[in-house]
Specification:
Length: about 140
């Protein structure tokens, strides 16, 4: 797969672009656009050609966050029924606030970030793309 610095347009790539900007992430990732599969025998037209067939974001040393876009030709897809959640442990309260406030902007806050009974500073929300998040900071 090729390394992309600018992603094609589509919901997954929009989410990655916005998330990387807010979280100030500068990590390499692999992405593969559906249009790269297009050929004269099997053409893929816009907007599907700009959508992602595959994106892999490294998390730590051995994990990957994988994503893809759904092609229009596959019909209506209800993505909000997906209840997968991304959890981020911040290094400080300030970082937790920055991540929570930035990523939740335009989304739906399920639990405002605040001090919890177990000593963790914690909050939950879905971002403007419908992706579920948990942000926490636990002092050591």
């Amino acid at each position: 797969y090729r390394r992309y610095t600018a992603l094609p347009l589509g919901n997954s790539s929009d989410w990655v672009r916005a998330t990387f900007e807010i979280a100030n992430l500068d990590i390499p990732f692999n992405a593969f656009a559906l249009g790269e599969l297009s050929s004269p025998e099997h053409p893929i037209a816009e907007p599907d050609a700009s959508r992602l067939m595959h994106i892999a974001l490294p998390i730590g040393k051995s994990s990957m966050l994988l994503g893809s876009d759904v092609m229009e030709m596959m019909g209506q897809v209800t993505e909000n029924d997906n209840r997968n959640t991304i959890a981020i442990s911040a290094e400080s309260r300030e970082e937790a606030d920055q991540l929570f406030n930035g990523l939740s902007a335009g989304g739906n806050v399920e639990m405002p970030i605040s001090d919890g009974p177990l000593g963790s500073y914690f909050g939950m929300f879905s971002d403007k793309f419908g992706v579920q998040w948990m942000v926490d900071f636990t002092p050591k």
